[in-house]
Amino acid sequence: MLIAIWAQDKNGLIGKNDHLPWRLPNDLRFFKEKTVNNTIVMGRKTFEGMGSRPLPNRQTIVLTHNTAYENNQVLVMHSLEEVLHYSQQTEMITYIAGGSAVYQDFLPQCDFLYRTTIDHAFEGDAYFPSIDWNNWQLIKQTQGTVDEKNPYPHVFEVYKNNKDRT
């Protein structure tokens, strides 16, 4: 199973200088709950923006066109096909975790989307790619809790792919 997971502001912004432009512990907790004991796929820049180290208790795949790139703490792959083949061979769910180009490549293959929408506008330089929402059905929506640690209104959404991919 392939799932894209991300947080965005109300304008679709997902990053600034290869980092998240906000601090929202509720979303980080949501991401951890969903991805722990599973596989996450991210591009090299996203991985390096996280400190070039894998998140605990997850199999991390770094997707890069750079065939000389090495990191013995993660699996390094060089194509969508290589990741899809790996995903089909494992019992774990594979989560697509960014950046923009990686989301763009994998969206047609995803079974579900897990999107956190933050009701605030931030400044940044990376946006989630456009989606044909006619292929997706909202199946769950949960309002996030706003408090002193999570100052921005936010919603957790789950979409199911309705597109016939046979």
Automatic annotation (TrEMBL):
Reaction it catalyzes: (6S)-5,6,7,8-tetrahydrofolate + NADP(+) = 7,8-dihydrofolate + NADPH + H(+)
Coiled coil: none
Enzyme class: oxidoreductase
EC number: 1.5.1.3
Pfam families: DHFR_1
Keywords of this entry: NADP, One-carbon metabolism, Oxidoreductase
Pathway(s) served: Cofactor biosynthesis; tetrahydrofolate biosynthesis; 5,6,7,8-tetrahydrofolate from 7,8-dihydrofolate: step 1/1
DHFR domain: residues covered: 1-161
Claim: Oxidoreductase is one of the keywords in the record: yes
PANTHER family: DIHYDROFOLATE REDUCTASE
Membership in a protein family: Belongs to the dihydrofolate reductase family.
Function statement: Key enzyme in folate metabolism. Catalyzes an essential reaction for de novo glycine and purine synthesis, and for DNA precursor synthesis.
Protein name: Dihydrofolate reductase
